Each structure stands twice: as C-alpha cells, then as structure tokens.
Amino acid sequence: MRLLRSTLATAAALCAVATGVVLVQPAQPAVASAADCEGGARGFRDHPDNAEGDTDKPRSFSLGDVRFTLEKGAYVGQQIAFGKISGQTRPGDNVWMDWRANGWDNNNAVSPWLQCGPFTVRSNGQSLTTPFRRTSTDPQYNFRVCGSRAVDGVIRCSDWW
C-alpha cells in the first residue's frame, strides 16, 4: 500500500509540474479564532471598530468595493498594528490579522504563528478592526491583513510587513 501511495504521489507531482501548476500549502496556525487575541490575550489589545491608523498604510488590498488595510499607529508610545475592513461591506464579510514572531513571545503563543480572527461584519457598510499588537523592527516579527467576502468566500492576504 505504501508503494501505491508513493507512486500516486509521484504521478500527481509530475502532472502538476507538467501542467505548470504548483500547489503550495501555506503554514497554518494551530487554532484560528477571535478568542486567540481578544480581551488582552497573547499581548493583543481591543479597540473600537472605527479606529484609524496613521495615513501610511503598510499593506492594503481591495476585493471589489471592500478594502482591507493593515493599519499602524501608536499606543502609549509604542508602534502598533491592526487589520481593518471597510467600504461597501456586507454581513458575512471577514477580516483577520496574521502575526508571526519566530523566536518572540513563545511563552504566550501556542506557536510562532497566530491568526487573530476572523471578525465578521454584521451589517451593511460596517467597518471592523482586529485587536492591535505592538510592532518591532526585528525582521522575524511580521503582520499581514487577510479577509474574505461573503459573496464568493475567496480568501486573500496582503504581503507580510
């Protein structure tokens, strides 16, 4: 049976290479829920859903008329980051922020990768933010904003910042 699985896996890989399709499975957090970062969990802090970062948005993208931004700002003298969804949102649209910190805060996180959210839009035109977390100049400490729209469920994420 092991030989058959190996042969099938090899055949599938050859077909993918021959057709130019490369399947990459991204790293996934151990558990993904809003509770992983709400109420002060794992160094995140809650703030209002209408919060705005400064005018320099480190990362952003749009899905139709819905905008997803990675916002940065300051809180108690420290730079912070958070994700935001805005625009012509509809109930069921989602936003979340991925955070990774290889070698940082391992005593507070289940892994060096954490998905903060998803947070779900409940009414037309509602803006939502994720809780925020302090940033760092360390290149191993990164954030990105991700989201999906209820109409098609396609998930997209910004580049890491």
Essential attributes:
161 residues, mainly beta, Immunoglobulin-like, five-stranded mixed β-sheet, five-stranded antiparallel β-sheet, 1 helix, globular, disordered N terminus
Task: Describe the fold and architecture.
- Keywords: Signal.
- It comes from Streptomyces caeruleatus.
- This is Secreted protein.
- This protein has 161 residues and is mostly beta strands.
- Helices cover 11% and strands 36% of the residues.
- The chain contains one helix and ten strands; from the N terminus they run H-E-E-E-E-E-E-E-E-E-E.
- The protein is globular, with a radius of gyration of 18 Å.
Structure, briefly:
The protein is built from 1 helix and 10 strands, in the order H-E-E-E-E-E-E-E-E-E-E. The chain has one helix spanning 2-19, and strands at 32-33, 59-63, 66-75, 78-87, 94-101, 113-120, 128-129, 133-134, 141-148, 155-157. This is Secreted protein.
| Fraction of residues in helix | 10-25%
Give me the Rg, rounded: 18 Å
Strand order of the largest sheet: 1-6-5-9-10
Catalogue the unreliable spans: 1-31
Give the CATH topology. Immunoglobulin-like
Can you tell me the number of structural domains? 1
Number of strands: 10
Indicate the proportion of strand residues. Answer: 35-45%
Q: For the terminal residues, how far apart are their CA atoms? A: 45 Å
Write the layout of secondary structure elements.
Blueprint lengths: L1 H18 L12 E2 L25 E5 L2 E10 L2 E10 L6 E8 L11 E8 L7 E2 L3 E2 L6 E8 L6 E3 L4
Parallel strand pairs: 1-6
Antiparallel strand pairs: 2-3, 3-4, 4-7, 4-8, 5-6, 5-9, 9-10
